[in-house]
Amino acid sequence: MGRGRQADGVDVPASEMKKWFDSNYHFVVPEFSEETDFKLVFNKALEEFTEAKNIGVTTRPVVLGPVTFLALGKATKDAKAGFRPVSLLPKLLPVYKQLLADLKAAGAESVQIDEPILVLDVAATYEKEFITAYSELAPVSPKLVLATYYGRLDSNLTFVAKLPIAGLHIDLDRAPAQLDQVIAAVKPSNIILSLGVVSGRNIWKSDFQAALKLGQKAVEAIGAERVIIATSSSLLHTPVTLAAEKKLTPEQQDWFSFALEKASEVSTIASVLSGSQDAKVTEALEANKVSIAKRREFERTSDDAVRKRVAAITPEMLERKSPFAVRKEIQVKQLGLPKFPTTTIGSFPQTQEIRTARAKLGKKEITEEEYKTFIKKEIESVVRIQEKIGLDLLVHGEPERNDMVQYFGERLHGFVFTQNGWVQSYGSRYVRPPIIVSDVSRPGPITVEWSSYAQSVTQKPMKGMLTGPVTILNWSFPRADVSREIQCKQLALALRDEVVDLEKAGIKAVQVDEPALREGLPLRKPDWDAYLSWALPSFKIATAGVTDALQTHSHFCYSDFGDIFPSIQALDADVISIEASKSDMKLLSTFKQYGYSNQIGPGVYDIHSPRVPSEQEIKDRIKAMLEFLSPDQLFINPDCGLKTRAWKETEASLINLVNAARWARQTY
Ligand code: GLN
Ligand code: ZN
Fold first, then answer.
1. Mind telling me the catalytic residues?
2. What is the dihedral of CA 157, 163, 167, 168, to 10 degrees?
3. pTM score above 0.90
């Protein structure tokens, strides 16, 4: 399901993958139709419960709740119009009953049942389903602890507090302010409160004093026997253990807490609250006080110059000097691009050879100089290939980058990297997010040497390539005690200097990628404006420091713009490139509807598969795009970077793309 299958005459694409709430973890989206039947074929929860029980540990099994399971699914292509997956609840519940009854029979005292959908606005429409589900499940189950995380319950609390559950888990890392409301709602019942006071989403040491305050409040209101201490969410989003880090300084070691360390924090906090505090716990409390104070002191003495610069950001810094129409004329002259200019999104195939050279540099088997010579050779070869294919706006190909966020983090002040801080993204894929630990600044130019070199070997214009501030922030572990707004603006200022330096070095177009802008949107719509109010300005700070002559590009890896279209428009990039799936031209009608006037390159082919699109196919897409966009608005490009592709299909696809653009120039 995750990979699809293309063998023995079968050709089934992989199932859709989506990000799990606002995390970078993905799940395979289940597909349902009114025909769907459910059967319990394998009770994994039971097997694992039994395995632990056999060595003398009674665990609390965790299962995903039925409402969230259905609500996150989608209708199959053959489902009847208007079919809602949650309508299958009556068919699904018998299977959940069996699963839970089996656990009870095996000796499970309680089960954690996860319903994170309850922190979304949409959950209000599932009230009826929640009541049905839990009144049917409760009588046959072990005690049910309903878990919510990543956000607040808000008005959903009114019906949740009345469900026949034994316990309710709430996230007090993301939403500490909901504690009073939750206490008031559950007080008249027997519901046990599980307080998620230790963050499951960050890598910072918990502040015990703050956690104890929340815990004490609950204990005073409903009694210690009704309070559980827990992590805010599963520990899936944090690395396993700090013990595996050998390169952090002792000072840095003292700031962090990974999964195993967080588990021990939970136990310390619980001991204090339950009055079973021994000498070891007292010692842990004292040590924590010292660590937190030291970290605060470090924060306080962080980079004053950077903070002053953020405070001095003026509204003028966010705007280009002239409106787009004026800029466009200057840029057309300066870049000398034809109508329907062709370009790519930045990366070219990251070959084994490139990865080997990088690894050798890491192990010091080659010198810095040897590595640079190798990368320059790579860049020149990518330039020659683009010239031969006939592309108009070239790129250097990004061979020097390990990862689009890590590469920049490693060259900015304010970041720390782990050796083994891997976090699951999906299947066997893991990422190792950089950690922002202090004020961010740029000690010197990052990409200028590579872009200038690339420009020096060709007459064609070269596009500089940067990762945007919002994306760097969203794909790192941010600081917990400074707002994301401040961190993002610091990144934006550092990137602003880089863009200006690229222009000074003679680069005439710069792309600032923001693939993570959309996924950073808060889970609840009323919170969107607060996020956009700094995310959008951050992009603008990064890109508006240049003259009218510099053509700014931005790239987004998605096409789901419906709700945030005005925000994309407000970025005022000269050119944006986006994903545009084959059949779905609906998206482009949005651009027309909003009167989008800047330039745009909706991807003309999908780079996520090795398939080579035919010239005709690309022509057809251009034709379809022109129903919504004017000929002088359109850029012709693939829908994302080419780093995961092989050279063979890359060249073949780009040749067809260039031919289709030539045809368009003659036809329109
Ligand atoms: N410039 C990057 C690349 O081409 C963009 C990657 C992305 O959108 N995720 O690889
Ligand atoms: Zn992309």
1. 608
2. -20
3. yes
